[in-house]
Specification:
The chain is mainly alpha-helical. It has a single domain, classed as DNA Binding (I), subunit A. The chain is 36% helix and 9% strand. The protein is built from four helices and two strands. A two-stranded antiparallel ribbon has the order 1-2.
Length: 114
């Protein structure tokens, strides 16, 4: 994985083979008993909401596009809403986003529906 000097710090220019390898590792993790036990807890890592296990998605704490790996210490179970909103943010950027919404004190990453 070569770092591209023309992209902002922490962004990586992934070769197609690197991306394919990380996707393969993620598929293997999703098939593992470790991941199934993680999802069986039924809770989103980011917002803490209870979510049916089958609706939890695998989210990379440090996104692959930012140099993260598909490894047990870099993936968490997240609800689709949080995973979609987090996109390529690092945890500190995600926390800043939640803080801007006033969600840090409430502990949730979802915007109010009221």
């Amino acid at each position: 994985m070569a770092q591209n000097p023309h992209i902002a710090p922490f962004a990586f220019d992934l070769d197609a083979s690197d991306l394919a390898a990380e996707k393969r590792k993620a598929r293997e993790l999703r098939a593992s008993q470790w991941w199934k036990r993680r999802c069986a807890k039924g809770q989103c890592h980011w917002c803490g909401q209870n979510v049916p296990a089958k609706e939890l998605t695998m989210d990379h704490i440090v996104p692959i596009s930012r140099g993260g790996k598909s490894a047990k210490n870099n993936v968490v179970a997240a609800c689709k809403t949080c995973n979609t909103k987090k996109k390529q943010l690092l945890p500190m950027e995600w926390a800043h986003y939640l803080q801007s919404l006033g969600r840090i004190a409430e502990g949730g990453g979802h915007e109010s529906t009221s």
